[in-house]
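User: Study the shape:
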Amino acid sequence: MTRERFIDLVRTEQEPLRRFLLGLCSGNQSLADDLAQDALVRAYVASGSFLGLSKFSTWLFRIAYNCFIDHCRKASYDTVSDESLEAQGVLSDDSTDESFRYQQLYMALDRIPEKERAAIVLHYFEDRDIKEIASIMQIPSGTVKYLLSVGRNHLKEHLSV
């Protein structure tokens, strides 16, 4: 794949990729941007191995999902102090209502397991079908359906509290 072709394909997928990662990161824009950048760098480096067996977007989202999983694994080894957790709840002076429009949804997404979150975000935020989600997450279609069902129930519980 040529550099120009890669750039053209990324241009069309950049915003959906960012939305996907923003949902996975529970609204944390800086983390979503960092993961998007990491995914795009990894994709560019591996662009020679893209054979076109799936859609480019499926391939790119799989790389982004792997970046997210890597981040989660790394984050589980990091320890966070009680003070930093408390500071996360403090709003900055320059925040606007628009910035927190989906805060309740993102907080609920943050409370469900990462696989359920990924399936929910891909299906409802990015309008991906079951087969494509299965390809991105590398799991059977039946498992995707299960994750969507259980994820919806978990979200209902967290949003109704």
In short: The domain at 3-160 is CATH 1.20.140.160 (Butyryl-CoA Dehydrogenase, subunit A; domain 3). The chain is about 75% helix and 0% strand.
